[in-house]
């Protein structure tokens, strides 16, 4: 691993009149949260300049390498340090801390899209005011563990090992009923998440003992288990920084009863429960505690950022460092091991996901595009078949209903050459594309083997007309729409299947409620295709349907 100090062009920015060249300045016991995939780092609160707490928000652009201080809206939290700040999406949930005199128990949310603060109304059993606690998010649940506050009867400090859970959607608090052996009461400990588990390690207890034990809470069952670690274990300490990267926890700095901060780096593989010391290259941060940081992956792959802290002389610091870990997340390691053929296939699939909604819908029903490998927004050459019910006819127009992938759909098809005879259709009539009957699965889905596409024509009693087409008599569809289907604005009519090439109108005798079959002209074959024996797959354009 390698350290890199973040050097900002302060002198140049100062000459240009920028007041934000130095960023948040010196501070400790603050929080740092990366959003937008590591693009922006939000620094909030802490203790520093003029030896007092702050409630300022500063934003570091990790791409442009610049600081800014946004103008915030709403009522901001009171100045504080020792709080927790947790990402819930791109919003930041701030809880607790201290204003320098008393512990706090309020909850605030910063919506980073508009830089607006709110203080939501919460219900349920709330945590007591506290500082030095930890917070972690699992799914939509915000877990608050430990910390210390004041006794309601006197000013004695109270140390906690309780667990409160906030539903971040309903803002309901619950005090968790846990089983197993929980960690002892503690504060300024490390906390992180891995999969559906919360990990608590180290810290300081109410008797001024420094800890290095590791405990894991299953967020589904609320059962605590102590992790029996091996390797070069972390010495007991508190006030260090813990950053998660996949299954790895990196621990930097901290202090012990000797009142001498650390400048070492430890790594815990949670999966194997093995601790290791990390030897780094480059000049790293000085010994410190109460620093803040976060992971900037994926925008800066495998990179962690460290901001500020406090040294052994109790002086706040303002320097910043990148740690290039060289680590990759588990899913990335799996991707790196894939053969080139599979990587190419995944790349093509990712590119297809960027196509428009209509193109994506076409592929989801009919499979991949034809041999040309492209999709046009105006005409989609696709292959396939589906069954539909003809509900109404208006001369050369047909209103159809079907169910595809469980979704009831309705649409219109019509020919540009109207029939010379009125055709009596009833609501029980059916239409169907032609082709190999094996191409239609029992649920009516397309299996990608159709070899014909074409236009719509009534069934004829004369079998002789079937010599030059691959039509199939329509049958009862296997999936029927349930109830009336909602209809929105009509889209452009069906324009893709060469309806100008409809066979001559049928003048033969017809049943009272005839079936339809959809016939598409076969695609021409080249001589080379004939020699190979390949059947040229004919194509048709998407039938416009709406919800």
TrEMBL record:
It comes from Eucalyptus globulus. Gene3D superfamilies: Kelch-type beta propeller (2.120.10.80). Keywords: Kelch repeat, Repeat. This is Uncharacterized protein. It holds the Pfam family Kelch_KLHDC2_KLHL20_DRC7. The keyword Cell membrane does not apply. The keyword RNA-binding does not apply. Residues 509-535 have a biased composition (Basic and acidic residues). Residues 442-536 are annotated as: Disordered. Residues 460-473 have a biased composition (Acidic residues).
């Amino acid at each position: 691993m390698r350290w890199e100090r973040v050097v900002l062009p302060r002198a140049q920015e100062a000459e240009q009149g920028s007041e934000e060249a130095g960023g948040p300045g010196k501070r400790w016991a603050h929080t740092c949260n990366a959003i937008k995939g590591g693009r922006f780092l939000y620094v909030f609160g802490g203790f520093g300049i003029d030896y007092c707490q702050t409630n300022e928000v500063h934003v570091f652009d990790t791409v442009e390498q610049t600081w800014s201080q946004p103008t915030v809206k709403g009522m901001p939290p009171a100045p504080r340090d020792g709080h927790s700040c947790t990402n819930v999406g791109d919003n930041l949930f701030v809880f607790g801390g201290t204003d320098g005199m008393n512990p706090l128990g309020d909850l605030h949310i910063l919506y980073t899209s508009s830089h607006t603060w709110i203080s939501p109304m919460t219900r349920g059993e709330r945590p007591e005011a506290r500082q030095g606690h930890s917070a972690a998010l699992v799914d939509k649940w915000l877990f608050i563990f430990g910390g210390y506050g004041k006794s309601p009867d006197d000013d004695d400090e109270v140390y906690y090992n309780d667990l409160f859970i906030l539903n971040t959607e309903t803002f309901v608090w619950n005090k968790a009923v846990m089983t197993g052996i929980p960690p002892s009461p503690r504060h300024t400990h490390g906390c992180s998440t891995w999969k559906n588990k919360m990990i608590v390690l180290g810290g300081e207890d109410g008797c001024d003992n420094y800890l290095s034990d590791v405990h894991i809470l299953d967020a589904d069952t609320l059962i605590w288990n102590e992790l029996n670690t091996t390797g070069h274990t972390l010495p007991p300490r508190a006030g260090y920084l813990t950053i998660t990267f996949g299954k790895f926890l990196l621990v930097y700095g901290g202090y012990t009863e000797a009142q001498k901060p650390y400048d070492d780096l430890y790594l815990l593989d949670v999966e194997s429960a093995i601790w290791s010391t990390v030897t780094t290259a480059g000049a790293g941060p000085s010994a410190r505690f109460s620093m803040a940081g976060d992971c900037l992956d994926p925008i800066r792959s495998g990179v962690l950022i460290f901001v500020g802290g406090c040294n052994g002389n109790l002086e706040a610091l303002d320097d910043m460092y990148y740690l290039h870990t060289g680590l990759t997340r588990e899913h990335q390691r799996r991707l790196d091991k894939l053969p080139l053929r599979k990587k190419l296939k995944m790349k093509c699939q990712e590119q297809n996901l960027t196509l428009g909604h209509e193109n994506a819908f076409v592929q989801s029903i009919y499979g991949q595009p034809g041999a040309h490998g492209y999709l046009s927004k105006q005409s989609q050459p696709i292959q396939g078949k589906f069954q539909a019910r003809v509900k109404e006819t208006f001369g050369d127009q047909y209103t159809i209903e079907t169910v595809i992938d469980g979704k009831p759909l309705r649409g219109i098809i019509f020919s540009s050459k109207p029939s010379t005879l009125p055709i009596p259709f009833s609501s029980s009539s059916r239409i169907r594309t032609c082709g190999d009957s094996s191409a239609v699965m029992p649920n009516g889905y397309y299996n990608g083997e159709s070899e014909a596409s074409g236009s719509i024509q009534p069934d004829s009693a004369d079998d002789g007309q079937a010599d030059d087409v691959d039509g199939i008599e329509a049958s009862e569809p296997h999936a029927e729409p349930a109830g009336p289907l909602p209809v929105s604005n009509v889209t452009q009519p069906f324009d893709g299947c060469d309806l100008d090439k409809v066979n001559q109108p049928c003048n033969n005798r017809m049943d009272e409620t005839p079936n339809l079959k959809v016939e598409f002209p076969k695609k021409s074959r080249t001589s080379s295709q004939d020699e190979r024996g390949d059947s040229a797959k004919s194509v048709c354009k998407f039938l416009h349907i709406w919800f």
